[in-house]
Write a structure and sequence with these properties.
The chain has a two-stranded antiparallel sheet. The longest helix has 18 residues, at 46-63. It has helices spanning 9-19, 46-63; strands spanning 24-31, 34-40. The protein has 64 residues and is an alpha+beta fold. The radius of gyration is 13 Å and the shape is globular. It has one domain (9-63). A hairpin with a 2-residue loop joins strand 1 (24-31) and strand 2 (34-40). The protein contains 2 helices and 2 strands.
């Protein structure tokens, strides 16, 4: 995960604030500004996010 705003950071901020969420993860495929991954998370949630993404990747790989 990189530091700093991504190309969809404004959208992520709006969704996070509107939903009053602690964190947001957005994956855009073929969006109007290209494909990108953007997240806004408290540091305490970055470790669990890594584990969760690995689990999702394992499931996708197994299904394909």
């Amino acid at each position: 995960m990189t530091a700093g705003p991504g190309i969809y950071d404004d959208e992520v901020t709006k969704i996070r604030e509107r939903t009053q969420a602690d964190g947001i993860v957005l994956i855009v495929l073929g969006g109007n500004r290209g494909s990108s991954f953007c997240c806004q998370l408290p540091m305490r949630d970055t470790g669990p996010l890594v584990a969760w993404l690995r689990e999702i990747a394992d499931h996708i790989e197994a299904d394909t």
